[in-house]
Write a structure and sequence with these properties.
Helices cover 48% and strands 19% of the residues. It has helices at residues 2-8, 11-30, 38-44, 76-87, 93-101, 136-141, 180-189, 202-212, 223-235, 250-255, 267-272, 283-318, 324-342, 344-350, and strands at residues 33-35, 49-52, 64-70, 112-117, 121-126, 129-134, 156-162, 165-173, 193-197, 216-218, 240-243, 258-262, 275-277. The longest helix is centred in the last third of the chain and has 36 residues, at 283-318.
């Protein structure tokens, strides 16, 4: 009875399993990955689909104007003046790129009022003339005709209308992050499906998707549509990890099984995300998946070892081969052994 009482106490389980999670989270933090709870470490091992935002996540977000197209009835200077006048009232990275391209273009415009239309662009009045600056869809919804070629370009396009007539467009380029291609390839090698969901134009998003080699790329999505796409994947039985860094990504980050963000992203994104990559590198996501799987393998190994040894020890005690003293020693040695195994990642990292 004493042997059975000593060996059946689950000290090894209640100590080593939490230590296994602690060791995994600790090692992840040393690699610049902050888990907000052990349940997300567990959930990340079950994820089969990784959904990513484009701008700021896969790309640098350093926009530059590479071309300016103006209509025949408008001079280049008039276009620049009207566009810069309204874009000066916005903090969007694309607006900043236009301002940096022609910083003094609006010097002669005195009166400007601007309203931001979320997901579309800017609507303003500059010296008494209405100015629209935003996506081609924005102009289309306003009933303004524009060259069809703009809708097919694989770059970001800011179309401008002055007085209800198309005036021109800014062609803007962004660069992929240096580790984006390798990170997507590594995720696919882990057997994960990769999807891009972006608010940018579909031709641009698909071009980026082809360059990265993702399984699917969907563009022209407002925040609520991103949320719908994530929920659609979940209804298909998929476990989704969403990676994004902007305020507009927050609904999808919150709804995903695991939300991942970059530490240089928006405050709201960091607040609702479950995992934060402090080094702002996409390969951190690959590392997070690898570490979580390694931690769970170690936890399962400890669990199996504990159950096997306890079964053997209990059978030996019931058969009379073990006395209370040796059984207590074996019990404690098992507890110490599996606990050290659970803490091995942290011990190595500390060394």
């Amino acid at each position: 009875g004493l042997v059975f009482l000593v060996l059946s106490c689950p000290c090894a389980l209640v100590i080593s399993i939490p230590l296994g999670y602690f060791g995994g989270i600790g090692l992840a933090s040393r690699n610049g990955i902050l888990f907000k709870g052990s349940n997300y470490l567990d959930m990340l091992t079950k994820v089969d689909t990784v959904v990513l935002d484009k701008t700021g996540t896969l790309t640098k977000g350093n926009f530059k104007v590479i071309e300016v197209d103006h209509a025949d009835h408008v001079s280049r200077e008039e276009l620049l003046a009207a566009a810069v006048a309204v874009e000066r009232r916005s903090n969007h990275p694309v607006a900043r790129a236009i301002r940096e391209f022609a910083p003094e273009a609006d010097a002669g415009i005195a009166e400007v009022s601007v309203t931001e239309v979320p997901g579309r662009g800017l609507k303003g009045v500059a010296d008494g003339r209405e100015v629209l600056a935003g996506s081609t869809r924005f102009l289309q919804e306003a009933g303004i005709a524009f060259p069809e070629k703009l809708a097919e370009l694989p770059q970001t396009v800011v179309a401008v209308a002055v007085g209800g007539v198309y005036a021109g467009a800014f062609i803007i380029a962004d660069e992929l992050k240096p580790d984006a291609v390798a990170a997507i390839a590594a995720l696919r090698n882990l057997g994960l499906r990769t999807v891009i969901l972006s608010g940018d134009r579909t031709p641009l998003v698909r071009a980026v998707g082809r360059e990265l080699g993702v399984d699917e790329a969907v563009g022209e999505l407002l925040p609520d549509r991103k949320l719908e796409e994530v929920k659609k994947l979940q209804l298909q039985g998929r476990r989704v990890a969403f990676t994004g860094d902007g305020i507009n990504d927050s609904p999808a980050l919150s709804a995903a099984d695991v939300g991942v963000t970059l530490s240089d992203g928006a405050d709201l994104a960091r607040e609702v995300a479950d995992v934060v990559l402090t080094e702002c590198r996409l390969d951190g996501l690959v590392t997070a998946v690898d570490l979580s799987k390694a931690a769970m393998r170690r936890i399962r190994t400890d669990f199996g070892l504990i159950m096997t040894l306890n079964t053997v020890f209990l059978a030996s005690g019931l058969a009379g081969f073990l006395q209370p003293g040796p059984s207590a020693l074996l019990h404690n040695l098992t507890t110490v052994g599996v606990s050290l195994n659970a803490m091995r990642p942290m011990l190595k990292a500390g060394a």
